[in-house]
Amino acid sequence: MEDRLSAAARLINTTSGHIFLTGKAGTGKTTFLKQLPEITHKSMIVVAPTGIAALNAGGVTIHSQFLIPPLSFIPDRNASDGVLEQGGYINQQTLARKHPLNSERKQILRSIDLLVIDEVSMLRADLLDAIDYRMKAVRGNFRKSFGGVQVLFIGDLYQLPPVVRTEQWETLRRYYPTPWFYEAHALQHDPILYLELEKIYRQHDTVFIDLLNNLRNNTTTERDLVMLNDHCEPPEVIREMREVITLTTHNYKAEEINKAELQALNSPSCYFEADIEYEFPEGMFPVQQRLELKRGAQIMFVRNDAEDKMYFNGKLATVTDIDGDEIHVTMATTHVPYQLKKVKWENKSYKVNKETREVEEEVIGSFQQYPVRLAWAITVHKSQGLTFDKAIIDVGQAFADGQVYVALSRLRSLDGLILRSPIPASVISTDKNIVAFVEQNNHPEQLPELMKTRQQEFLQGLLAGTFDFSALVQELRHMNKQHADEGVLDSTMKPVLQQLAEALEQESDNTLRYRHQLAELVSAGDQSGLLNRLEKGSAYYRKIIINSLKQLLIHTEHIRQGKRVKTHLNQLGELDQFFSKKWEELDKAVWLTASILRGEEVFDASPLSKKRHQERLALQEEVRAELQKTGLTIKPEKKPKKSKKKKDGDNRSTYEITLDYIKEGLSLTEIAKKREMTVGTIEGHLAKAVGSGQVDIYSFMSHDAVDEILASYRTLPTGATTKDLFASLQGKYSYGALHAAVAYEKSQVAK
């Protein structure tokens, strides 16, 4: 059978079914994701469950892309509002009514052919059902899961499980057997194709690989335990070790080790602030905003060196000298000297290009800092994706399924293993539901036949969908009725949308017969006849769509001359997108069909896209010329104001700008709207202002709230995180409020 990565590429490009790309640690999942945009013809976006995961995947968070609040989703349309609100739950009704998508997000979700969800082991079933509903509603297709969009799931279920609080699960268990993503209702009638990568690039020691497989599959033997525990070292030996990192189970343990080691160094602390531009939420910070280092500190790089290849994600080093902003280190094991450089992380979002009507990435914020963190110790959770030659493993108190496996699989070989304490058999576990799921779905021997069947289904669906204009007609009719009723359209332009709908409807009988002809040619395997018929039909309907789009652009320009027509223009933009998408489908139909029949793996649609872009620009110029002949003055499109960006000569930091607004008396919501940032980002600025004494915490928080937060904070162990505080208060207060209260506490202690 062909290489699994090649099979994954072919499945994405030549089928429409959902795919689960999985594999053990180090099998190349991340590499494949980064290469995917270059090898697929499909318009795609990448999302992930957390900010850090999204940053690493080069995508956005699920919650931000789909505007899903951080609540549990109940797949029950009839659940009462009272139950939903009191219990912190949402359903389809409340999601649509209270958290509607804006026009831009709708356009993005209508434009894509492929949705990629990375780190899917963290994705809960209820959140996936919320995504499914969003996609169906936006695309107007409730017959198919995710509105007919293909979904690529990437991750390893044998790693750490999704997080669900006990009280949440008491409700969610009525709807789902387990919290894992594959239990989502969306996948029960549209199952995923399981594709497991097998070639391991991280480990080459067969004995170690076999041991890891046993840990992964719940088949650990007594011999395996003896082999592991032979690597235990006494505390006095571990204390003398250098250039080695500890992987531990709890945040507070890692923080205590790092704090103690840092304090033990006989050198002054130096602090380095990150440079944050525009929108970059705290939950996405890849390293500390304020980095504390000392001479002698052990650090770890948190990303790969793209320029000089001097380090990689997980590489250890020791700080040898600090001179102002110059930080000098020596690399672990090689002791090669190196001067640290700040690097930039970018927070991205997706937008639809107004000219091409295609989905593009847009940088909306950045975070610039030295790409390192203190690294005497890190948690097992934060070690996912990293590789170490040597590590101290402290998992005697492992509390989650897969935790021991994740920790040990970070190592290249058994020789690099150092255990702080013996690993008891009781902490080694893999969720039995995962083992059963894999056994049920992992059938690589069936893949060639499945691919053949699904490719034929894809071709049938591709051609049927390309030459189906019913959704476009429906959208035209809906918009025409809506705006005619509202009196937005003047008497000369009222017929335009109606005429466009009628022109497409007149072709309905022809398109139906044509689709049947294409289906028969596909079934008969008549490749030559299929391509010949397809070329002629595509050219014919392409002219109809482009002519219709021309009329729509003329109509849009007329509407733009009016006042208070922003909403209507947004909707016309969505209609423009419908026509542009159909244009794209017609362009790709012949090329894509021919490529599939030839058995190609890589599908580069960029030449088609460039050609279509040039044709659209020419069409827009043609529209402008015709309108100018009629005496119509073409108004230039207004570019959206970016209030979050600094004005010329404004040297204030983004924090200082927010602080000035706070002093003016604006609310957090008003500031967030004015600066085009999230409320969470503004809350982070507010917490900083409280810590510096520039803002009185009681000006925006009650004494009771501050007292309750700090009472809980004081009961937490040293090194506890804001996440731990959030959990201890059961989500009663926002992260911003927690940060402000803790900042206030620290400022009072400092006095």
3D architecture notes:
With 751 residues, the chain is α/β, with parallel strands linked by helices. It has four domains: 4-201, Rossmann fold, CATH 3.40.50; 206-430, no CATH class; 448-629; 654-750, no CATH class. Helix content is 47%, strand content 13%. It has a six-stranded parallel sheet with strand order 3-2-6-7-1-8. Strands 16-15-14-13-19 form a five-stranded antiparallel sheet, with no helix packed on it. A four-stranded parallel sheet has the order 20-9-21-22. Strand 14 (316-323) and strand 15 form a beta hairpin. It is globular. It starts with a helix and ends with a helix.
Main β-sheet, spatial strand arrangement: 3-2-6-7-1-8
Structural class: alpha/beta
Beta-strand content bin: 5-15%
* Mean pLDDT across every amino acid position: 84
* Shape by Cα distribution: globular
Termini separation (Å)? 69 Å
Name a few traits of the molecule.
single chain, 751 residues, alpha/beta, Rossmann fold, 4 domains, 28 helices, 13% strand
In short:
With 751 residues, the protein is α/β, with parallel strands linked by helices.
Helix-strand blueprint:
Blueprint: H1 4-14, E1 19-23, H2 29-39, E2 44-48, H3 51-57, E3 60-61, H4 62-66, E4 72-73, H5 81-87, E5 89-90, H6 92-98, H7 103-111, E6 114-117, H8 125-139, E7 150-154, H9 166-172, E8 193-197, H10 206-216, H11 222-229, H12 235-239, E9 245-248, H13 251-264, E10 270-273, E11 275-278, E12 290-293, E13 298-301, E14 316-323, E15 326-331, E16 337-339, E17 343-352, E18 359-369, E19 372-374, E20 377-379, E21 391-394, H14 403-408, E22 417-419, H15 432-441, H16 447-466, H17 470-486, H18 494-505, H19 508-524, H20 527-560, H21 566-597, H22 606-629, H23 654-663, H24 668-675, H25 679-691, H26 703-715, H27 722-728, H28 735-750
Parallel strand pairs: 1-7, 1-8, 2-3, 2-6, 4-5, 6-7, 9-20, 9-21, 21-22
Antiparallel strand pairs: 10-12, 11-18, 13-14, 13-19, 14-15, 15-16, 17-18
Helix pairs in contact: 7-21, 16-19, 16-21, 17-18, 17-21, 18-20, 19-20, 20-21, 20-22, 23-25, 24-25, 25-28, 26-28
